[in-house]
Amino acid sequence: MARNVVVTGGGTGIGLEVARRFAEAGERVVIVGRRPGVLDHAAQEIGTNVTPLVCDLADPDAVEAALPALPARIDVLVNNAGSRETVLGAGPHAVLARWRGDFERNVLTAVLLTESVRDRLTPGSGRVVTVSSIAALRGAGSYGAAKASLHAWNHFLAAQLGPSGITANIVAPGTVAGTEFFGPRLDDAEVARRSARTLLGRIGESGEVAAAVYFLASAEAGFVTGEILHCNGGELLGR
């Protein structure tokens, strides 16, 4: 039987490849994001089994308004939505905007939706997979701190959901090509520099991260919970 899958940030990059992976496997996928044009284009690109849903996941009122459009039973929830706050400056107002923005965009976007649909997660087989970042472990200011918050939250969530047979895990990618995160900063020189930091001598692809997410959402991963699956080509080991 086809599963109901919700992928946040499903319009581009890793989220798009995650949505594609599930849809091509015959699952029913809802992709959630802030930009209607991006979501519509992603749904058309994937072609079948995908429904776009516009929602600002950092806004509790928007999340509440979106709940009727989400499946009554959710088998897989992929918390992928996130971005980096671009406010610059060293003054207290700029620091506050940067830290608050990164927390809202990367933590609240996962927590508000997950807590709102906890009762819809399928007992015995439900899966929650949250996409974090290598930045949570190697340090990256407010962005790294926000991603690290997801790790602590996931431990709590796994303990809360475990008695119902529902797993909660993290995928923490390193540098990945084909996303909006780096923009023009990821030029050839930067790709070479980042590739040299890995054991494999290259950066990752969105589809490789999607494969890790897909595994954690599978029946075969039913005895894995509260874990962080690193997908970074050996850039960071043993954590």
Mean pLDDT across all amino acids: 93
Number of strands: 9
Taking the sheet with the most strands, its summary is: 7 strands, parallel
Q: Strand share of the residues?
A: 15-25%
Q: Can you tell me the CATH superfamily?
A: NAD(P)-binding Rossmann-like Domain
Helix content: 40-55%
Q: Helical stretch count?
A: 8
User: Which regions have little confidence, pLDDT < 50, spanning 5+ residues?
Assistant: none
Strand order of the largest sheet: 3-2-1-4-5-6-9
Compute the gyration radius: what is it?
A: 17 Å
Q: What is the ordering of alpha helices and beta strands?
A: EHEHEHEHEHHEEHEHE
**CATH third-tier fold name:** Rossmann fold
End-to-end gap = 37 Å
Structural description of this entry:
InterPro entries: KR_dom, NAD(P)-bd_dom_sf, SDR_fam. Its EC number is 1.1.1.-. One of its GO terms (molecular function) is oxidoreductase activity. This is SDR family NAD(P)-dependent oxidoreductase. Belongs to the short-chain dehydrogenases/reductases (SDR) family. This protein has 239 residues and is an alpha/beta fold. The protein has one domain (4-230): NAD(P)-binding Rossmann-like Domain (Rossmann fold, 3-Layer(aba) Sandwich), CATH 3.40.50. Helix content is 42%, strand content 17%. It is built from 8 helices and 9 strands. It has helices spanning 13-24, 36-46, 60-66, 92-117, 135-138, 141-161, 188-196, 206-216; strands spanning 4-8, 28-33, 50-54, 76-79, 127-131, 167-173, 176-177, 204-205, 228-231. A 7-stranded parallel sheet has the order 3-2-1-4-5-6-9, with helices on both faces. β7 (176-177), α7 and β8 (204-205) form a beta-alpha-beta unit. α4 (92-117) packs parallel to α6 (141-161). The longest helix has 26 residues, at 92-117. The protein is globular. The termini are far apart.
